[in-house]
Fold this sequence. Notes:
The chain is an all-beta fold. It has a domain at 1-130 and 350-380. The chain has no helices and 29 strands. It has strands at residues 6-8, 22-25, 38-42, 45-50, 63-69, 75-82, 97-100, 103-107, 112-118, 122-129, 143-147, 150-155, 168-175, 178-186, 196-203, 206-211, 222-229, 232-239, 250-257, 260-265, 277-284, 287-294, 309-311, 315-320, 327-332, 340-345, 357-360, 365-369, 373-378. A five-stranded antiparallel beta sheet has the order 1-6-5-4-3, with no helix packed on it. The protein has a four-stranded antiparallel beta sheet with strand order 2-29-28-27, with no helix packed on it. Strands 7-8-9-10 form a four-stranded antiparallel beta sheet, with no helix packed on it. Strand 3 (38-42) and strand 4 (45-50) form a beta hairpin. The two termini are 31 Å apart.
Amino acid sequence: MSACTKVQTKKIENNLAGEELSTLNQNIDATGTLLGNSVDIDDLYSIAGDPGLDELLKPNRGAAYVYNRTTTGTVWTQRAILKNANGKANDNFGYVVTINGNYAAATTTDSIYVFKRSLGNFWVQTAAIVPPNLPSGCFCASSLDLYGDILVVGQPSREIGGNIQVGAVYIFKRVNERWNHQKTILSPNNQEGDRFGSSVAIHKNWIIIGSRGHHEASHGGKAYAYLQFVDNWLQQATLIPTDIQYLDNYGGSVDIWGEYVIVGADQETSNGSRKGSAYVFKRTGADWAQQAKLLSPDNLNNANFGRTVAINNSYAIVAADKWENASVYTFKRNGTSWPFFRSDDTPTPSSANFAWKIAMDSTRHYITGNIGSLSFGTNY
């Protein structure tokens, strides 16, 4: 693919039916492409990971692609292809990606790599990070987020005290282009199967950590809020709805914007078999309270609604696969309620991989990773 490939974003007006999203198919001359396995967006820039990209003698080396739009435009143009220095076979670079301001980060099977933008759209690797004091075995990050000079990394597979998949979250702070380890946060629940760090999100001085659990866990998932105090991060709240049940997968996806947090529970069953749901919490001072429970307007069983979520001040978007007919649902805040606004269906029929991952920024632009392609949209 040319480095100048463009995708046109269709403006989606205020209608409940929605319109087809613009889709970018990444036609790379390689096998096993997993473009869109992870995505992120920040105003004029977005990033998409492709951990399955093959190179000669380096299968699954991976890559990440950076896109840029003009200040007032809707066209996204590929500006850079990011790869880790000295990449090797099965690195799976780009398995998780994030972007904020002039910085982007991507993971491999054993490290986190940070890139900085300079001279327009020239991106340079500035750091390779490995969390300290890791137990023996592979470091596999499953979640990543970046805000300002803070990088948050989730490793839900970490073993603690002989217990498997308890999980941990690592926080790094940038000081003069060095990313110093600031803190390792361990699961407050501290039980096997917690999968603490399944999802992470940061905005300003708040971090939200999802702990979705699995069949070994004693809970249906949890989400934790951490507040920064100088150079420390302290648990400030545990966010759990009253109707969460065992194996609901609550905390499998989280996002935060300002005073609002959204948490996905794509296996939640209170309204039917694995229909799924998403919960919105609002902070008032130091107190967090559930403000809404979002449900799919299609009301389909096994829809996995809440598989991935994103939020800003006025909009929340939630993905569901709906038995190989995936959609992204938008909810628009009206006071203290979050009514359904519209849905965007998969541009590719019978594709359960549409909106495998989603991300949204403060300008209401969003990106969906579709495993093999990308879609861009705009909320109005």
